[in-house]
């Protein structure tokens, strides 16, 4: 694992069948609540905290988002961008997290009427 080390992060998303991938450098840190990944996307500060029960995604900057994912449950997504803000429901169908040799989080969820899949992976840059 790359606790407190730099990681290469890849985020693959598929929204209603349309796929995209973004890459970032980040850091992984062990916390009392699980594992936290901190990184920057499009100038916004992002963090993802994952444990065996849930994943919490936040983004602060031009876009402000806070999403909580819990398998089999409906939770809320808080979104603010420009002059728009709102709360949407998120139903998490699937949530899987593995940590070795590369940390991978897979989430399948529904936000409003959109079906989404997200694969977040973090690999230690200094791995031998």
- Largest β-sheet summary: 10 strands, antiparallel, barrel
What is the strand arrangement across the widest sheet?
1-2-3-4-5-6-7-8-9-10
- Share of residues in helices: under 10%
Write down the overall geometry.
Answer: globular
What does this protein structure show overall?
The protein is an all-beta fold and 128 residues long. The chain has no helices and ten strands. Strands 1-2-3-4-5-6-7-8-9-10 form a ten-stranded antiparallel β-barrel. It is globular and about 40 Å long.
Short description:
The protein has about 130 residues and is mostly beta strands.
Please name the defining characteristics of this protein:
single chain, about 130 residues, mainly beta, 10-stranded antiparallel beta barrel
Topology readout:
Blueprint: E1 6-15, E2 18-31, E3 34-41, E4 44-50, E5 55-60, E6 63-69, E7 74-81, E8 84-98, E9 103-111, E10 114-124
Antiparallel strand pairs: 1-2, 1-10, 2-3, 3-4, 4-5, 5-6, 6-7, 7-8, 8-9, 9-10
